[in-house]
Fold this protein.
Amino acid sequence: MNRLEWILGIILVVLLVVVAVLSLTFWFRNDRTAVPAPSFNSATTIAQRADDIAPTPEYDGRSAIIAYAAAQETALAWQPDAQILTAQATWPQGATAQQLREGETSWGFTFYSPSAQKIAVFSVVEDNVALVSEGDHQQTEPLLSASGWNLDSDEAIKAFLAGGGNRFLNEGGVATLTMALMASDIEENGRLEWQISLFSLQTGQAFTMRLDATSGEILSTNPET
């Protein structure tokens, strides 16, 4: 074996050792790293989570506040200090303006327990409440009390449609509506907010609106109307 062969052999052994070390590192890191808590700071994330519990047409829906009453009872049994973090829902694609206006569907509610530092997601389909998932979570923004939640989903959608949603449906064709109630005071304005979005499957465009869930005031639209 000449010198070149010795050098190549040594390089090969070094490479195999490096690959083995990296493999073990990734294995143990993935095995021991906790699954991070989901982020609730964007409408996109909320929409993706809502898709997991999107309704099917054969189910009778409920308005958000009615569904919340059922979810809250189960959440308090889960943790006595459970507080609502978000409520979210997605309507079936192609739902008509009249179907949307009723504001009734199946819902997903995320609750946070300060004492346990955990979150849990509950689905409400008709009158049935089910625990979808739970995990560790450290809430950084203060939570707002649901006692200030006055605007139910049907009233929020009516304001949304009147404020530009109807025009978007007429121009955009088949669309999907997603809405989320935000009880985490991310913007530090002390307001419970509805975030509602229509996504056109034909044009790829979207129309969104933020509403004060206490007063019903339209806070912003994108694009502006």
